[in-house]
Amino acid sequence: MKRIYAIESVCMNCQLCAVFCATGHSRSKDIIKAHNREKVLPRLFVEEKRPVSFAVQCRHCDEPFCVQSCITGALTKSLEGPVVYAEEKCVGCWTCVAACPYGAIRRDVDRKKIAKCDLCAELTEPACVANCPNQALVYEERGS
Amino acid sequence: MTKYAIIGNSVAAVGAIEAIRSVDAEGSITVVANEPYHVYSRPLISEYLAGETTVERMAYRPADFYEKNGVEAILGVAAAGIDFDKKSIALEDGQSVEYDKLLLATGGKPFVPPIVGLDHQDIFTFTGLADAMKLDEAIDRVKDFVVIGGGLIGLKCAESLHKRGVKVTVVELADRVMAAVLDVDAGRIVEKSLARKGIDVVTGDTVEEILGEGGSITGVRLKSEKELPCQAVVIAIGVAPNVELVKDSPVKVGRGILVDDMMGTSVPDVYAAGDVAEGRDVLMGVTRILPIWPNAYMQGRAAGMAMTGSPRGFAGGLSMNSIELFGTPLINVGITDPRDESFEILTRSEGDHLYRKVVLRDGRLVGAIVVGEIDRAGILTGLIRDGVDVSDFKEELLRSDFGHIDLPADVRERRLFAL
Amino acid sequence: MYTLLQPDFRIKRDEERCIRCGVCVRQCAFDVHSVDTDDGSIRSDESKCVACQRCETLCPTRALTLEENYHVANENYNWTGGVLKNIWKQAETGGVLLTGMGNPRPYRIYWDHLVLNASQVTNPSIDPLREPMELRTYLGSKPDSVEVVKENGSLKLKTKLAPQLRLDAPFLFSAMSLGAIGYNVQEAMARAATEMGIYWNTGEGGLHKDLYKYGKNTIVQVASGRFGVYKDYLDAAAAVEIKIGQGAKPGIGGHLPGEKVGDLVSMTRMIPAGTDALSPAPHHDIYSIEDLSQLIYSLKEATEYTKPVSVKIAAVHNVAAIASGIVRAGADIVAIDGIRGGTGAAPTMIRDNVGIPIELAIAAVDQRLRDEGIRNRASILAAGGFRSSADIIKAIALGADAVYLGTAALVAMGCHVCQKCYTGKCNWGIATQDPYLERRLNPDIAAERLSNLIHAWSHEIMEMLGGMGINAIESLRGNRLHLRGVGLSKTELDILGVRHAGAS
Questions:
Q1: What is the distance, to the nearest Å, from the Cα of residue C408 to the centroid of all Cα atoms in its chain?
Q2: C98 secondary structure, DSSP code
Q3: What does DSSP assign to residue C141?
Q4: Would you say residue C218 has pLDDT above 80?
Q5: Which CATH superfamily is domain B3-108+241-307 in?
Q6: Which of A9, A20, A31 minimises the CB distance to C439?
Q7: Are C58 and A50 in contact (CB < 8 Å)?
Q8: Architecture of domain C168-473 in CATH?
Q9: pTM given for the model
Q10: Fewer CB atoms < 10 Å away: N or C end of chain C?
């Protein structure tokens, strides 16, 4: 399946991936409103320790430990490949947070829900990849 | 065409069904369970008790799960016995189910210690939906609860009861709450967060007698002679594997049903998974019962794969819990409180809200406790599961924002982008 | 000390638009922006701003606007704001004013006073989309005459030709050394040059081993510091260029401070890490044309006469005579860098006041070499502030064979000409060795942008050539009749060898 890969050597820590991820997952899809009013959380993490940085999203594992750990059935592995999250089923137990080896699952503490990458299912290319100004994120098929 | 049978209808059964169907679309699958419910999320019974969810929303898989997976679900009917020679399960209603491959996923049953006065009314356990429903009814007439057991189940029960507006006192025999998975420091943080909300916690003591008049409870008497007034008692000490079906059978039982890494029991074509199974612990190098949800799913999955004849094996169990009590989230993984000198322990704490502990053995991470800032704690779990040598950056593990960036570049690349 | 200096720029942040994402904070190497930890808002210290526009460009909500800070209220024609500031600065520091990039002073840009011809009625123009159009250019010494013999019924060239560089279009990327710019920038230029069939120049800082694979499209430099010069370096290249001078700082050497000499630069320049890389003002073995000739032939010997040798000088007063000497010394190519040529670091006074405009230099050198009958013996490469395909085609009409693109290439890769290259804090990841900054220049993207620019300019040149009824760039070279001057004095026209517009 296609996955998102970070290219560390050209990631410049602008973190626009996070900005556009949050925007893409907002109700309004308006960048200013998404951040200043809706306070949407990005579905990815940018790790940085200068000079290095890179974005980490859900890897949509073949044997997802989060899915196996999810106590409510909110996380499932779809046949097409992505690990699918049904928000209405999530109770915010954070077991997936404890399980995910990538640390790719974010806690939305106020709403007691998690937030994680859905590969922007409705778009042809995830927002983080499409908006990276330095092509430090690619969306492609590699091996498995 | 293979006939698969599964006794039990919780997460291990689901793991097995999903595994079987990923390989074998043809075989028949029959699920037998004494609980009458569609497969539900057992841990959510505390949310149910707190009034935060409904039975419908507790469904662990969609309503058409059995249908879609071609499963015949015989629910609300207990298995009465198994004839391992004839490969047949006798049900309590007289039916029988034939099988080629059998999975025992009967789970655990609440452990009730010998306490004087167990014949009173309003003594509850807390492991299934029915328990939560009974407690839910009792809340209207009970003002004071005593919960026996300060483990995960006991505390979640206490929290839910507290949210419903009743007074709760937790009695724990050990010197701290959640003694099985936490160390003293983390235990204290949890106790303080409970105390702040008005839940009394008594540690180092236990209930010896349930007091009452005419069947109604009036209080409990502790080992310390202290008496606590209450009108109901929840016994939440823990669960014991539900091995009754295989008593006096060729299936070997230790504390639970003994299984190999393919989840096979001592009897061919018979497998066990979940809280009833005693499998290998990946860190401890011994077999033990690890009654946690993810473990049950993975064992169920491994069993399912093995039952189809394409075994993948089970990587071994790992103790891992995530619990949030009154807004203080907490995660424990692996070996968290070793007493042996061969372990190296690093900790960091800030006040009553933040605690981080990592346990190393031979340079590898084998356990962690994270209280408060639990985000991305899964990275630690991953390092534990994969046995990564962390000796070069062990101090970094204590930082709340520890991440892949703290790993050597080649390790990081491998871990992040192997897929 | 309290400073009299006011900020050069003003940063306006539209708080309605700002989403506090912190892109500006993380992207500014000059630490202009910072997060106010009290309320999460972002503040900007304008005194540090260099107007590189990185924050403005990357701000996802366009919340930032940069403006000139016109604060010198009573500046006059003589005592301009810039002049006053320079004095204040030097009164505070006691130092030489440093700068980067090319001369920004308003000397006449002759390109803007030269216009091109086009065919009308009496001679047909050519549509480059329908008919072949040749931009191929060969750089190197051409023979005085060629001898052709008939062999087995077909014609064969008997004359042995000097080595040539074959360019698919008359451009090269200017010499910019590793140290002045980052590795990624050089890689981008090398890749684009390879893709487009042109050349890039290493500058004087050596050639990193990983770039040897682009050697066929690489010109290596030998300058007064001799950094990284050894057998493999010369062997790897397509041509060797002796750098005598640079348009931005004629008569001045170079000084790469030790903090920019990390492992990569150290290895490539073959100097210890952390030491200053000093390029002396003169080559200490060249005090005459004869000395230069010795170096030219040393390099030819070393490369067994398989590669053209170029000599690059700054355009100065007697550029024509010097060029003549260079050609007579045996150079295959004379590269001339005009007063608007760029630099990674130069004293401001030198950059802004020394040298002559490249237009006049091209015309003077071309004419001188023609007059002496040696124009064929060397190609002329022009450099220094070429901004568009129109500037380039005019340069060729004036007599250049091809042009070096430095600033234009950098701008294509993202440079915003803030002139702070010498600080090593280039926010665009170009003029920096800082690993946090240099990764901003993705060689994949930069190479593509360079290729795009070359592609676009090539196309424009074809259009203009076609308009003139010319189907090969060679036919335009030195063909000054295709140029006319507008608003130029007689003296200027004479030097340029161009008639005034309106004259037939």
A1: 7
A2: E
A3: -
A4: yes
A5: FAD/NAD(P)-binding domain (3.50.50.60)
A6: A9
A7: no
A8: Alpha-Beta Barrel (3.20)
A9: 0.91
A10: C
C381-412 as b/e: b if 16+ CB within 10 A: bbbbbbeebbbbbbbbbbbbbbbbbbbbbbbb
Q: Which amino acid is at C385?
A: G
In angstroms, the CA C383 to CA C312 distance is: 10
Axis-axis angle for helices C183-196, C443-468 (nearest 10): 40
Write down which chains contact chain B via at least 3 CB pairs under 8 A.
A
**Is the bond preceding C170 in cis, omega lying within 30 degrees of 0?**
no
Q: Measured between alpha carbons, how far is C398 from C35 in angstroms, rounded to an integer?
A: 54
- Asked whether the predicted pLDDT for residue C470 surpasses 60, the reply is yes
B327-417: CATH topology: Enolase-like; domain 1 (3.30.390)
From the list A110, A109, A112, A131, the residue with the least C-alpha distance to A120 is A131
Q: Domain-by-domain residue ranges, chain B? A: 3-108+241-307, 123-237, 327-417
Structural domain boundaries enclosing A36: 1-57+117-144
DSSP string, B36-48: -SSSB-GGGHHHH
Residue with tokens 């009754």: B244
Are C173 and C200 spatial neighbours (Cβ–Cβ below 8 Å)?
A: yes
| Domain spanning C9-95, CATH architecture | 2-Layer Sandwich (3.30)
Mutate to test the interface with A, among C15, C19, C27, C444 (most CBs of A within 10 A): C19
Tally of structural domains, chain A: 2
Block mean pLDDT (10 aa), chain B, length 419: 95 96 94 94 94 92 94 95 95 94 95 91 94 94 94 94 95 93 92 91 94 91 94 94 93 94 94 94 85 93 94 84 90 92 94 93 96 96 94 94 94 88
Residues of A in contact with C21 (CB under 8 A): 15-16, 18-19, 35
Using a CB-CB cut-off of 8 Å, the residues of chain A touching B155 are none
Residues in chain C: 504
